[in-house]
Structure formats: structure tokens, C-alpha cells
Structure to design on (472 residues):
């Protein structure tokens, strides 16, 4: 619980009116951001422990897994998905009802195969090339991703699903440019 | 030379071939179709004069545009189209600091507008406040609706306050309200059942300055302190020193009032409590993993 307290304290500080409204001085904004980032990192460690407890492991592979979090998925940046040709992903649904959620992962391959569930069901996916023009791979974020891997995660209420994602052979979705009359 | 249509089995959005802007939206499930236009604009922030309270500058506390009408960032956008089995998207570039991806996932009843704005240019010494504006022809009768911190939906009436007689001196800012998770406009004409709803991924400000329109503030960069205590202009330069680039999403739904009410409650919850993703590069085979 002391790890969770770091974020609790940061949130407590952020109840101050200037953090809520964004009227703090810039130096204070940086301080708020640092506190929240530290709190978030500590909570990710807790989630790491929780996921290892939730996932039943065979006795032969009892070692705890190290789960990593991609904090920059919103700007198509994730070192782990960009730099590995195969990886596992767990998606936890905090809502008390089942949810279907479209996920986008920054990748560099042209095609991928995704399996889920204990029976290894195939999950349909699409590799969408990123566009420099719309700054989906902005120079700002140092990402090496060239595409987004898109698929739908079907999640149980207050539960999780795991996915095995690996690069395969195939083609990406084509991008068509439109020449407009002006 | 023909218009570009983004569609799935439930909804479609048409983009004008001449301008590259959104032109029409249809809810196929409900058989509702409306002319819809969407574009990015900016207000120029008031420079102000801090020695005179009536000449307040636009700043961190205060939104005070120089003029009532915002300037379009561009009157057209270049387009790129991606068609696939799971997601179709149209990418629009409006300027070197404004772009957008309009996405439609298979089976989705709503359209996702992912906007990217910044760094806002200030080379001409003008502070800018960038908005997106969704323009319909709905007869919204001076009204629009926002949420109160994701809970109660409140009706907002232009140039009106329910508990006192308002002397409106700010035609734009005086009609801006917090949009914490959603806002919508309705066709207020009798027997019409159309509602246009926008859910956002973060708290923003916005208003319906003209009937049928819904505008939402996306990003601000200002050059003067508004003299209310912060003591700095709202001019975040970021790590590179040129200003921040901001990206976010709007989820747009066109429907009747009852289906809109259901959708924005469910979807609002899903946006607020989004799934948590975690990754690992375990050496286990998929069989061992299973």
C-alpha cells in the first residue's frame, strides 16, 4: 500500500485549485507532472505484482513475469512493441461489465499473427501504416514505429485477456492519397 | 474527383472532394442523415492592458478572444485514405501545426476524430487559441448540453443564466462552459428527435456560439499574463522550445435522443475507465503460455 500512497499523495496535492484549472506557474506544472509520473510508476509496479498473482502459472514456469507499460501509446510510441518481433500482452478491464476495445500498438513489421485464450484462437488484425504528414510518427517522439497494429480485445467484466502477438509474412493495408481540386 | 466516403455497416461520413472537409454524416441504423461540416479555427487572444481592469488579457485564467469570429486555420485539407477490414481512416492535414485522423472501426456506431495541434506559431506576436468546430444545421434554439463532471447533464442557454439577469459582455467566452466528458446539441424543433453528441477524452472548454454549432477549445498559446495571479503568460514551450504538440480524441455520434443517451453513458464510462495494457517478452511458447 505504501507504493499506492505515492500516487494518492500526488493526487491529493493536485486537488489544489491551480492544478485543477491549469493556472499554476510553469515550474509548478513541471512539479505536478513529476509527482504524478512518480505515483504512476509506483502503481505500475503494483499492477505488475497483481497480474502475476492473477495469472495461474504451471509449476514448471513459476517465475514471475516482468510486465512493462507503454505510457506513450497515444503518440504511437512503445519501445517493447517496436523492437520485438513477438511479445505477450495482457489487457485488464476495470469496468464491471464486458467490454470490446479497439487497441492500437506501434510496430515495425508488415504483418502479425495474434492468438488469444487457452485454445489459441486467432484474432483478426490490421496493420495500418503511419503517416508522417499527420504527425502520427512525429519527429518529436523518437519512435521507430512505421505502423499501428489494430485489433479488437474482448474483455470480461473486472477481468483480463492475454494475447500472443508475433510478426508474420504478409502485406500492410494500402494508403491512398487523394489529389484534390482547389 | 468524387467525394470520399468513410463508412461501416452502421455509420458513414462523407468528405468533400473539393475541400477535403467533412460534409455529411449518416446513422444507417437509425436512418438519420445530416449535413455536417468540421474545421479547425483559432481565436487571437486579447493582448489586454493590465492597468485597466476592463481591458483584461487572455491568459491562464481568462479566455478573452480579440474578436467574435475565429479565423479558419485552412479552408481545405489534404487527404489520405486507408481502407481495411477492421478500420477505415481519413487523414487530413490542415497546416504544419494542425492535422486530424477520422476513424471508423468495424461495427462502431460512432466516429473517432483524433486531432493533433501544435506547436502553435507565435512568430507574429499573436497569441492563438485553437478550436475545432462541428457545424450542423440543427435548430438548437440557443441551447446546448454539457456534463457536470461526468454526472448530471446540464442545459446551457446562450447569453442566459438561470439564476440572475445576465449582462453579456463577452459573446464568445461568456458562452463557454466546461466540457468534462461530453456535450451535445439537439434539434429543438417539435417532433424532431435528432441529437449530435461529442465525447472528449479530457476536460475541455466549449460552447455553441451559433445555433447548430458545437465548438471545443483544443490548445492555447498566449503571450500575456492575465493579471489574476499566475504572473506568467500561458506559453508552454516544451522540451524543444517551440511549443507543445497536443493530441486527443473526440468520439462523435449522430442519433435519436434515446439511443444517444444510452451511447454516451456507456461510452463515457469506457473512455474514463479504459482497459490497462501491459506487455512482456517472455520466452514461453504460446502453448506453454496457454
Amino acid at each position: 500500500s505504501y507504493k499506492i500512497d505515492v500516487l494518492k499523495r500526488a493526487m491529493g496535492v493536485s486537488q489544489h485549485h491551480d492544478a485543477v484549472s491549469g493556472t499554476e506557474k510553469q515550474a509548478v506544472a513541471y512539479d505536478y507532472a513529476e509527482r504524478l509520473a512518480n505515483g504512476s510508476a509506483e502503481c505500475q509496479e503494483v499492477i505488475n505484482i497483481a497480474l502475476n498473482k492473477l495469472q495461474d502459472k504451471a509449476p514448471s514456469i513459476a517465475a514471475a513475469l516482468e510486465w512493462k507499460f507503454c505510457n506513450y501509446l497515444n503518440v504511437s510510441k512503445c519501445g517493447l512493441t517496436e523492437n520485438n518481433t513477438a511479445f505477450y500482452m495482457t489487457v485488464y478491464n476495470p469496468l464491471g461489465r464486458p467490454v470490446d476495445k479497439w487497441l492500437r500498438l506501434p510496430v515495425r513489421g508488415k504483418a502479425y499473427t495474434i492468438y488469444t485464450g487457452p485454445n489459441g484462437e486467432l484474432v483478426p488484425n490490421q496493420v495500418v501504416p503511419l503517416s508522417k504528414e499527420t504527425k502520427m510518427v512525429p519527429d518529436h517522439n523518437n519512435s521507430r514505429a512505421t505502423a499501428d497494429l489494430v485489433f479488437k480485445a474482448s474483455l470480461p467484466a473486472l477481468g483480463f485477456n492475454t494475447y500472443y502477438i508475433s510478426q508474420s509474412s504478409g502485406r500492410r493495408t494500402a494508403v491512398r492519397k487523394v489529389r484534390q481540386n482547389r | 474527383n468524387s467525394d470520399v466516403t468513410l463508412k461501416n455497416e452502421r455509420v458513414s461520413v462523407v468528405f468533400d472532394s473539393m475541400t477535403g472537409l467533412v460534409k455529411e454524416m449518416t446513422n444507417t441504423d437509425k436512418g438519420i442523415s445530416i449535413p455536417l461540416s468540421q474545421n479547425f479555427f483559432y481565436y487571437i487572444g486579447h493582448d489586454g492592458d493590465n492597468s485597466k481592469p476592463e481591458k483584461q488579457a487572455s491568459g491562464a485564467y481568462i479566455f478573452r478572444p480579440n474578436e467574435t469570429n475565429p479565423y479558419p486555420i485552412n479552408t481545405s485539407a489534404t487527404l489520405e485514405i486507408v481502407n481495411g477490414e477492421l478500420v477505415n481512416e481519413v487523414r487530413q492535414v490542415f497546416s504544419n501545426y494542425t492535422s486530424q485522423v477520422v476513424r471508423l472501426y468495424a461495427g462502431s456506431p460512432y466516429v473517432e476524430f483524433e486531432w493533433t495541434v501544435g506547436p502553435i506559431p507565435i512568430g507574429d506576436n499573436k497569441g492563438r487559441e485553437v478550436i475545432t468546430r462541428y457545424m450542423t444545421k440543427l435548430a438548437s434554439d440557443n441551447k446546448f448540453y454539457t456534463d457536470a463532471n461526468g454526472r448530471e447533464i446540464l442545459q446551457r442557454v446562450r447569453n442566459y443564466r438561470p439564476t440572475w439577469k445576465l449582462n453579456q459582455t463577452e459573446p464568445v467566452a461568456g458562452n463557454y462552459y466546461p466540457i468534462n466528458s461530453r456535450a451535445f446539441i439537439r434539434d429543438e424543433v417539435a417532433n424532431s428527435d435528432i441529437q449530435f453528441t461529442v465525447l472528449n477524452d479530457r476536460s475541455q472548454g466549449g460552447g455553441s456560439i451559433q445555433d447548430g454549432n458545437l465548438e471545443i477549445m483544443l490548445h492555447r498559446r498566449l503571450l500575456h499574463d492575465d493579471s489574476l495571479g499566475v504572473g506568467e503568460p500561458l506559453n508552454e514551450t516544451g522540451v524543444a522550445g517551440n511549443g507543445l504538440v497536443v493530441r486527443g480524441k473526440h468520439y462523435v455520434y449522430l442519433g435519436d435522443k434515446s439511443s444517444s443517451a444510452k451511447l454516451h453513458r456507456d461510452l463515457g464510462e469506457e473512455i474514463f475507465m479504459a482497459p490497462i495494457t501491459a506487455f512482456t517478452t517472455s520466452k514461453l511458447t504460446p502453448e506453454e503460455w496457454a
